[in-house]
């Protein structure tokens, strides 16, 4: 017996040394893996954060240009929902909050104290917040209609956080630990299971008879602890009905928590009301669509107070307890600031569920699609009809002289060019919608650029006997622009001025450079634009209801694309007009300030009355 005891003791020592060695090796390997995960996690988080920053900044710029910043708060909140994003916000040059994902508004911004970093790809600061969390904050300046700065932050992964969340190698670690633990682990697990099996066998043998009291197990294994807790509950004097009720209550509570989390992450807004029409559940998207702050508690409020719309009240009164779908409008009736929401009601046992979806963009898309079909039909059918007619005449008529052949060929060429230009506009619109419309900046001689534009539009002015005057400074600098796109912008503005100006009218082109800004004004004595239609001039596919304008060929794309090109150069385009008096389109593009840019008083470069 003594010899056996010594062998057991020696074996345990060997096992202990082996276990310590294996544990140390596993700890070193695990530490290396965790360090690698920290670096990899921070790298991927930073990439996602920078991607979200670029995408959200583009959306903010577009919203500032088109909606005067009405949707900035929604853009910021959506960006903060991206995985790995802690918060994001927009501040003005006066360091005041414009929008914040946490709801902070009209409060001075305080720069965090930390280590600033700057490179070609990222600019920001790394600091530790009040909770001891390492935050990496990135920023970018928005060269938009409202100068501002967009910031977005991510929480850095640390050794502690990765160690706490590390679980990918647990099965491997357990497998390697079994080699070291061997018999000890097996004995630790089998012992409690054996005793539990004996008691369960006695329960099975009772076969419905009165059960003997279950006994706890005096062991520290996890299985034994779980068994002992179960024994304590079973040995209480609760009736079977009470135990069943407790189990159902526990399951219902668990299912409710899971359902609430799932509903909160749905893309549509969801509201659940009881039989009295009072709110019992609302997800965050519903609050966002209704303009309710995320932290506002509205449980117990009547659903009628959330939808103050006559259509909703009428549908609610006529449907009673039946399902219905109604489209309501929130905000001003002006289509530029209002939002269209489709509300669906579905009765539930003891209440109702309301589904809310924003269909504003869908409705605008349908409207624009209808306008596009009308414009495309006209722009494609008319040139094709002319090409076909002149081509058939050339093919079937034998006695056409050379001059007529040239005239017919020129007409076919003009109509083909018109079709090509329309297709180019459609491709530009497609690029604009995809966010891929860009500019190729190069050094441009402004005087040469304007001379080329004058040469392009002069024949149109001459054909309508329009007095065309143009002036710019004696000395124009070389600037960085996209020559082709700016050429198209100027030709579009002057071409529209000539097209919508009656015969014997006048068109003026005025170019000035002041304070490092290139200012271009195109003034005509044409039909003019009504006050009601003036805000829509730069909308895609928009055409005036004036019959004089409708008689002229056009797609409604030129001014929209021209404005986008000017804004891609960091500039602005505006229009003033008076019906039957004429219009003035103004372009302002920053070109940098220098002595040679600020030219003296403009003089008439060329004045021609044709």
Q: How is the secondary structure organized here?
A:
Layout: H1 2-67, H2 72-80, E1 85-92, E2 97-100, E3 115-118, E4 123-128, E5 134-142, E6 148-155, H3 159-165, H4 170-181, H5 183-206, H6 222-234, H7 240-264, E7 269-274, E8 279-282, H8 284-290, H9 310-319, E9 324-330, E10 339-348, E11 351-358, H10 360-396, H11 402-434, E12 442-445, H12 446-463, E13 467-472, E14 478-481, H13 483-499, E15 506-514, E16 517-524, H14 547-550, H15 558-568, E17 572-578, E18 582-590, E19 603-609
Parallel strand pairs: 13-15
Antiparallel strand pairs: 1-2, 1-6, 3-4, 4-5, 5-6, 7-8, 7-11, 9-10, 10-11, 12-14, 13-19, 15-16, 16-18, 17-18
Verbal overview:
This protein is α+β, with helices and mostly antiparallel strands and 610 residues long. The protein has 4 domains: 2-165, Beta-Lactamase (2-Layer Sandwich); 267-355, PAS domain (Beta-Lactamase); 362-434, Signal transduction histidine kinase, dimerisation/phosphotransfer (DHp) domain (Helix Hairpins), CATH 1.10.287; 442-609, Heat Shock Protein 90. The chain is 48% helix and 21% strand. The strands form 4 sheets. A 6-stranded antiparallel beta sheet has the order 2-1-6-5-4-3, with helices on one face. A hairpin with an 8-residue loop joins strand 9 and strand 10 (339-348). The protein is elongated, with a radius of gyration of 37 Å. Mean pLDDT is 76; it is low at 1-11, 333-337 and 594-610.
């Amino acid at each position: 017996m003594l010899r056996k005891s010594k062998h057991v003791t020696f074996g345990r020592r060997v096992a202990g040394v082996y276990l310590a060695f294996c544990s140390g090796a596993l700890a070193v390997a695990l530490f290396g893996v965790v360090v690698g995960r920290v670096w990899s996690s921070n790298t991927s988080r930073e990439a996602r954060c920078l991607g979200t920053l670029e995408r959200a900044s583009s959306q903010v710029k577009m919203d500032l240009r088109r909606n005067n910043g009405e949707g900035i708060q929604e853009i910021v909140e959506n960006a903060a929902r991206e995985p790995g994003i802690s918060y994001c916000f927009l501040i003005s040059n006066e360091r005041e909050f414009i929008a914040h994902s946490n709801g902070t508004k009209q409060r001075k911004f305080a720069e965090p104290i930390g280590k600033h970093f700057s490179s070609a790809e990222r600019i920001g600061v790394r600091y530790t917040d009040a909770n001891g969390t390492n935050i990496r904050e990135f920023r970018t300046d928005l060269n938009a209609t409202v100068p501002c700065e967009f910031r977005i932050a991510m929480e850095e992964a640390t050794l502690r956080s990765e160690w706490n969340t590390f679980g990918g190698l647990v099965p491997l670690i357990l497998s390697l630990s079994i080699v070291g633990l061997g018999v000890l682990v097996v004995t630790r697990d089998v012992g409690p299971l054996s005793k539990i099996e004996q008691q369960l066998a006695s329960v099975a043998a009772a076969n419905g008879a009165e059960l003997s009291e279950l006994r706890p197990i005096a062991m520290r294994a996890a299985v034994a602890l779980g068994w002992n807790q179960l024994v304590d509950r079973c040995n209480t004097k609760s009736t079977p009905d009470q135990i069943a009720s407790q189990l159902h209550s526990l399951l219902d509570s668990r299912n409710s928590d899971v359902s609430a989390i799932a509903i909160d992450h749905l893309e549509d807004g969801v509201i659940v009301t009881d039989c009295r029409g009072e709110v019992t559940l609302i997800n965050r998207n519903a609050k966002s669509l209704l303009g309710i702050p995320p932290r506002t508690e509205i449980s117990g409020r009547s659903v009628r107070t959330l939808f103050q719309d006559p259509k909703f009240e009428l549908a609610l009164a006529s449907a009673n307890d039946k399902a219905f779908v109604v489209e309501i409008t929130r905000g001003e009736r002006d289509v530029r600031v209002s939002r269209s929401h489709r509300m669906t009601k579905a009765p539930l046992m003891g209440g109702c569920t309301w589904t809310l979806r924003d269909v504003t963009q869908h409705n605008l898309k349908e409207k624009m699609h209808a306008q596009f079909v009308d414009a495309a039909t006209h722009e494609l059918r008319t040139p094709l009809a002319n090409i076909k007619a002149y081509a058939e005449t050339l093919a079937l008529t034998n006695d056409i002289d050379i001059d007529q052949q040239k005239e017919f060929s020129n007409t076919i060429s003009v109509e083909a060019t018109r079709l090509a230009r329309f297709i180019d506009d459609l491709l530009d619109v497609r690029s604009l919608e995809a966010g891929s419309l860009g500019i190729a900046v190069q050094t441009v001689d402004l005087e040469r650029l304007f001379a080329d534009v004058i040469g392009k539009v002069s024949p149109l002015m001459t054909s309508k006997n329009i007095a065309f005057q143009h002036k710019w400074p004696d000395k124009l600098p070389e600037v960085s622009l996209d020559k082709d796109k700016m050429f198209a912008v100027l030709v579009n503005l002057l071409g529209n001025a000539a097209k919508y100006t009656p015969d014997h009218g006048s068109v003026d082109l005025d170019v000035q450079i002041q304070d490092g800004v290139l200012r271009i004004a195109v003034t005509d004595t044409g039909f003019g634009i009504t006050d009601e239609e003036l805000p829509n001039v730069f909308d895609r596919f928009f055409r005036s209801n004036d019959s004089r304008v409708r008689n002229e060929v056009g797609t409604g794309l030129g001014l929209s694309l021209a404005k986008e090109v000017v804004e891609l150069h960091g500039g602005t385009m505006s229009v003033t007009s008076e019906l039957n008096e004429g219009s003035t389109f103004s372009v302002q593009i920053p070109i940098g300030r220098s002595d040679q840019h600020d030219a003296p008083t403009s003089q008439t470069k060329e004045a021609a009355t044709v």
